[in-house]
Amino acid sequence: MGMPEPARVQAVRDLHLRERTLLPAGLEPIEPLEPLPGRLLQVNVIKRTLPGLAVVSATLSGLRHAIRPKGAVANCEDDLLLGVNVRGCSVARQRDRDLMLRDGDAFFAARDVTEITIIRPTPVRFIGIRVPREPVAMLLGRLDDTLVHLVPHRTEALTLLVSYARAITHALPLATPELQRIAVTHIHDLIAATTGATRDGRAIAEGRGIDAEGLAFSSFVLGQRLSRVHRVLSDPNLADRNISSVAFDVGFGDLSYFNRTFRQRYSATPTEIRQSAMKVDAPSRSE
Fold it and tell me: Are 121 and 91 in contact, with CB atoms under 8 Å apart?
């Protein structure tokens, strides 16, 4: 805050370039920030990156935040974006659509051919989350590119997501790859639950008819994890995947619990589901 105004403006413009030079290869810096004329300028950013996840916790003011379109990002063409106004007001704009975001509201978007801009003329406490499309799409079904849409602040899964993201950026060391994998999986699950609990989210997921409203979060996540395992075991092209590793990959930490809940849901063991899929595929391979 002791910097004169021109120096602060230049420092913000240099932030994107400076971060790009410091990050390891394959990681993208934060999206570009542009000062708004005549507004109090404030930038305080903490960023945490893990395999399959980038989380930003920030206080921003007097800024236009540009989320770059497809074709302008080297390594993040297929990512999904969720931004939470923890406190304060901002406007999310894409094409001719404006969303007013107030305390606790969030926006969700897939990276599109058009730029998304977030305008924050006054101080906003903000959490931004970026994840690959595939793990969330595995929970929600087909995810087409969609315009930015609102996630209301009363969404229960969003509250859990904010708490978890804060812990990752500010508190949890997550020193081992296993802990990192578990944390990232939980974030993917929470994003799917958050998006699936909104009307727009249900429209995205209409191909699978998923509706998280009325379900306890734990029940929703369990159901989607079991569905993910079932899809893998039902695909003969994935027959080389070890069943235990598939269960671990989708977030199960207890194999006994996994096997019990899987059998309750599908009236068959995981091995039986895989064997059945292989039998169905065998005649077509022999023809």
Answer: no
What does each C-alpha distance from 245 to 143, 221, 252 come to in angstroms? 25, 18, 9
Which residue range forms the structural domain that includes residue 18?
Answer: 5-152
pLDDT tens digit string along 224-236?
788 889 988 999 8
Report the interhelical angle of 177-196 vs 133-140 (nearest 10°).
50
Residue 277 reports pLDDT greater than 50: yes
In CATH, what number is assigned to the domain containing residue 58?
A: 2.60.120.10
CA diameter of the chain? 77
Residue range 10-63, pLDDT digits in tens? 666 666 555 554 444 444 556 678 888 888 888 888 888 888 899 999 999 999
Asked if residue 264 belongs to a domain, the reply is no
What percent of the chain has a predicted confidence (pLDDT) above 70?
71
| Residue pair 217/83 in contact by the 8 Å Cβ criterion | no
Strand partners, 99: 92
| More confident call, 286 vs 154 | 154
Note whether residue 146 is domain-resident.
Answer: yes
| Half-sphere CA count of 287, side-chain side, radius 13 A | 5
Number of domains present in the structure of the chain: 1
